[in-house]
Structure formats: C-alpha cells, structure tokens
C-alpha cells in the first residue's frame, strides 16, 4: 500500500489535497454547474467494448473508490483543487510508471467562474514539484485537445514543451480525438516548477 499520496500541497490560497468520499456534495455541485463548460473535454468509453454500457456514468462513490484504490497501488495521485478553502476543481496525476520510465501524466478541470486567474497553473506547478522532488519521477506529460485553448495556456505559461500531435489519441465527448502532447523532464526545471511560475506571475497578472 502506498501512503505517499495522502499529502496536501499549498501555495497561497491554492490547495491540492486527496479526494474524499465526503467531498461528494461540493464536487457534484461544481460539476453540475460546469456541465456544459466541461462536456467537450470529458473522457468517454468507446462503444466498441463488448458488454459495456457506454451511457452509464460511474457514481461519485464508484469514482472515488477507483481513484483511491489506484492511489494506494502507487499508480495515481487524485487531488481536489481548493481555492480559499472552497472546492473548485480536480487535478489527477495518473499513469504513474516506475522502472526505466519514471513518468506520469496530469489531467485537470476547474470551475469556469475562476478560470484564467492563475489558479490552475499554480496547482499544476505544485503537483509537478511533488512528482519530481518527492516521488522522484523524471517526466510529466499533459495531453490536450487542440481546441482547448484555456487548458493549453496553463501548460504554455509553465513552459511545457509542445511535442506535437497524437492523432485520435483518446475517446473524448463520444469520439476519438486528436491531442497535443506537452511534456517536461526534471532537468528542464532545476529551479522547480513553482519557482518558475512565481517568476512568470511576477511579470504580470496571472503570467500574461
């Protein structure tokens, strides 16, 4: 069992902490308000899987049980995102691979009401620093649909490399969608990602 995922990360008003069963009410309220904002970017199950009811979404409890089981096995860091103590989104470090690769991927979403305020870049910076400095991972990647400009701006502000397109890479919003791959290795941020983001933010509002 892996206890390393039971950690809280903080920077100013921004907090990442493990998702909990008791977050259900707040998580569902934010998710419901942002249904249209998020629908285009949500993962879906391809209809080609035999016997799979692709129209059924997992319940919140099913989702949290899965995420926490994966975290306990060392394959995931499932965080909720808080701003001034209020739940406003989610960030998941997934696909954690050890051995000769030592890599992971990051996915995230945030309440539309607070998008563009520098909160999500701060959260990603916190997660990346934890993955590199504490877990000892070597590479982090983020895969984003080309049309998702707000999400692309998050990683571009942080200096992730654009590694190009992966055609029809993930099943999103009912079909196989192209994704741009952004990546970063620990050697590229010797100062730490949060320190880099603080420097970028100091040049103007939210790093713009």
In words, what does this structure look like?
With 208 residues, the chain is α+β, with helices and mostly antiparallel strands. It has a single domain, classed as 3-Layer(aba) Sandwich (Aminopeptidase). The protein has six helices and eight strands, in the order E-E-H-H-H-E-E-E-H-E-H-E-E-H. Strands 1-2-3-4-5-6-8-7 form an eight-stranded mixed β-sheet, sandwiched between helices. It is globular and about 45 Å long. The mean pLDDT is 92.
Topology, pairings included?
Elements: E1 9-11, E2 14-18, H1 24-33, H2 35-39, H3 60-72, E3 77-83, E4 86-97, E5 103-110, H4 119-135, E6 139-144, H5 149-157, E7 161-172, E8 175-185, H6 193-202
Parallel strand pairs: 5-6
Antiparallel strand pairs: 1-2, 2-3, 3-4, 4-5, 6-8, 7-8
The count of β-strands is: 8
Mind telling me which CATH architecture this is? 3-Layer(aba) Sandwich
Amount of beta strand: 25-35%
SSE string, helices as H and strands as E: EEHHHEEEHEHEEH
Largest beta sheet: strand ordering: 1-2-3-4-5-6-8-7
Shape, please? globular
For CATH, the homologous superfamily is named as: Gcn5-related N-acetyltransferase (GNAT)
Whole-number mean pLDDT: 92
Task: Please mark out the parts with pLDDT under 50 across 5 or more consecutive residues, or reply none.
Answer: none
Q: Radius of gyration in whole Å, from Cα?
A: 17 Å
Which fold does the CATH topology refer to?
Aminopeptidase
Number of helices, counting only DSSP H or I runs of 4 residues or more: 6
Q: Ends: how far apart?
A: 42 Å
Q: What about the largest sheet?
A: 8 strands, mixed
Number of domains: 1
């Amino acid at each position: 069992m892996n206890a390393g995922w039971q950690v809280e990360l903080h920077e100013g008003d921004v907090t990442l902490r493990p998702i909990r069963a008791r977050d259900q009410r707040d998580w569902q309220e934010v998710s419901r308000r942002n249904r249209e904002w998020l629908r285009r970017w949500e993962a879906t199950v391809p209809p080609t899987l035999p016997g799979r009811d692709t129209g059924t979404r997992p319940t919140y409890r099913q989702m949290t049980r899965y995420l926490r089981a994966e975290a306990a096995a060392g394959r995931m860091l499932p965080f909720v995102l808080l701003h001034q103590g209020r739940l406003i989104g989610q960030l998941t470090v997934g696909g954690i691979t050890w051995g000769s690769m030592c890599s992971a991927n990051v996915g995230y979403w945030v309440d539309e009401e607070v998008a563009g305020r520098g909160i999500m870049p701060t959260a990603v910076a916190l997660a990346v620093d934890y993955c590199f400095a504490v877990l000892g991972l070597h590479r982090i990647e983020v895969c984003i649909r080309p049309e998702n400009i707000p999400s692309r701006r998050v990683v571009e502000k942080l200096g992730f490399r654009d590694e190009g397109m992966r055609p029809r890479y993930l099943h999103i919003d009912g079909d196989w969608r192209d994704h741009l791959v952004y990546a970063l290795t620990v050697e590229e941020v010797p100062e730490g990602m949060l320190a880099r983001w603080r420097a970028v933010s100091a040049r103007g509002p939210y790093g713009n």
